[in-house]
Amino acid sequence: MAGKEYSFQQHNDFIRKYQEGTTRKELARQLGVTVSAVNNRLVRLGVPTEKRPFQKPKEPTLKRFLQCYEELRRFMGALKASALTYYQFQWAYKKLPRFRKAFTEHYNVIQSTYRCTLCEKVFPEEDIPKHARKENTRTGQCRVCLAERRTMILPREMKAQWEKQGGLCAYTGRPMNGGKDAAAWDGDVLCRKVVREMKGKLGKEEFVELCREVVVGSAADGQTT
Fold first, then answer.
1. What is the pLDDT along the chain (225 residues), one digit of tens a residue?
2. 15 and 69: one domain?
3. What is the domain-level CATH number for residue 9?
4. Same domain, 45 and 67
5. Cα dist. 194→27, 53, 145, 173 in Å?
6. Can you give the residue range of the structural domain that contains 98?
7. Which of 68, 151, 217, 223 fits a disulfide with 78 by CB distance 3.0 to 4.6 angstroms?
8. What's the gap between Cα 57 and its chain centre?
9. What secondary structure does DSSP assign to the chain, as a single string?
């Protein structure tokens, strides 16, 4: 079970069962782990025992946690970096309204945004392509940085054409960001790789006409269904 990430609810249920009197052996049986693993988890969470009494977290520690959470965008990583235990966090969240409000604001922002690891700016989800996201840290690379990064490794001729087209596909007008949307030559213009594969050996006029037929056919099919 080493390295496993637990949810808030799982942590809370674990602590509640222990404080209600569930033995460590029974907890181990319910979780399918060893008693030693239960003991280690109790220590990591900072759950108080007779030998380890509870210590209220100090305000500088709570402030440090919020700073780390904003920077790392990872809850357990912020706890570790600020030397705050989960039990202390739980106590502060329940007992200190100001801390609860501050944490909730941070949490809502982090869950609705991603930070670009290249420019360090924070963006809404739609500005970070799915293939460039790291869900566990809510980070990734924004579209602008992906485009700039790609132009840095393009051959000279391709880079010149890329800049001429503004990084946009010659046929769809959409950004060429990598993966299926990577830039590919089609004659003397650049287009998205997926578009190039669809076009095959068709000429430009033939391909455009075929796309029109597909659109018309799809619209007609939609009207009859």
1. 344 567 778 888 999 999 899 999 999 999 999 999 999 999 989 998 878 899 999 999 999 999 999 988 888 889 999 999 999 999 999 999 999 999 999 999 999 999 988 788 899 988 888 888 887 788 888 887 777 666 555 677 777 888 888 889 999 888 887 667 788 888 888 888 889 888 888 888 888 888 888 888 877 666 544
2. no
3. 1.10.10
4. no
5. 52, 61, 21, 13
6. 56-141
7. 68
8. 29
9. -TT----HHHHHHHHHHHHTT--HHHHHHHHTS-HHHHHHHHHHHT---SSS---PPPHHHHHHHHHHHHHH--HHHHHHHHT--HHHHHHHHHH-HHHHHHHHHHHHHHHHEEEETTT--EEEGGGS-GGGEETTTTEE--HHHHHHHHHHHS-HHHHHHHHHHTTB-TTT--B--SGGG-EEEETTEEEEHHHHHHHTT--HHHHHHHHHHHHHHHHHHHHH-
